[in-house]
Amino acid sequence: MEYIDAKLLITAVKPSQYPDTLVPEIAFVGRSNVGKSSLINCLTNRNKLARTSSTPGKTATINFYDIAGRFRLVDLPGYGYAKVSKTEQERWAKMIETYLTDRYNLVQVIQLVDARHKPTQDDITMLNWIRRFGYTPVVVATKLDKLKKSQIESNLTLIYHTLALDDSCFLLPFSAEKKTGREDLAEFIDTLCSR
Ligand code: GTP
Ligand code: MG
């Protein structure tokens, strides 16, 4: 499945700047540097649509990407990066929270975790927040290409248990680099937004 005609619609820091037509939105959350912006580029097959960086803290605003006027992918700042100042982290946290709580055309929050590591306390807190707001947990384990084949199953199991996932949840192995899981995620999002 191709996401044709993807474009950056608006960059926002507060609700008055959000797009006002209410097409379905899918938001991506996760630690700084986990690969949120890269995942959006991978989904849209556009290398430079969302700006990425090997330095964490790249995305500092809420970026709305329009997909052919049908739905939007929403890139949020990351959390949990110690080198971003406390004030800045708090500002981002507030910005993320405001968006997530007030946005009624938000159909799903998708959480990214690094496939190489045990999810952090921040990840657990984030996922519990997603549950509390009534979304089914959907977790994407990124950077799968950085794991050896022999590590994949045990790492995914660790993520599954650490985040207390169950059969009702989705855990999708993904690599923006190799496009692993891209087709499944693209279909999944398209279905969510077509309901
Ligand atoms: P912030 O905007 O800082 O919150 O980060 P982000 O979550 O948007 O991460 P970003 O997409 O900027 O990616 C961070 C770094 O990880 C970049 O150097 C990417 O090239 C790299 N990266 C992202 N996804 C993958 C992946 O699937 N595989 C590999 N090998 N590298 C990846
Ligand atoms: Mg980013």
TrEMBL record:
InterPro entries, A to Z: G_ENGB_dom, GTP-bd, GTP-bd_ribosome_bio_YsxC, P-loop_NTPase
Its required cofactor(s), as named, are: Mg(2+)
Cell cycle in keyword set? yes
Q: Which domain of life is it from?
A: Bacteria
Q: Which PANTHER family match?
A: ENGB-TYPE G DOMAIN-CONTAINING PROTEIN, MSS1/TRME-RELATED GTP-BINDING PROTEIN
Q: Which family does it belong to?
A: Belongs to the TRAFAC class TrmE-Era-EngA-EngB-Septin-like GTPase superfamily. EngB GTPase family.
Annotated protein name in UniProt: Probable GTP-binding protein EngB
**Organism field:** Ructibacterium gallinarum
Classification lineage:
Bacteria, Bacillati, Bacillota, Clostridia, Eubacteriales
Question: Gene for this protein?
Answer: engB
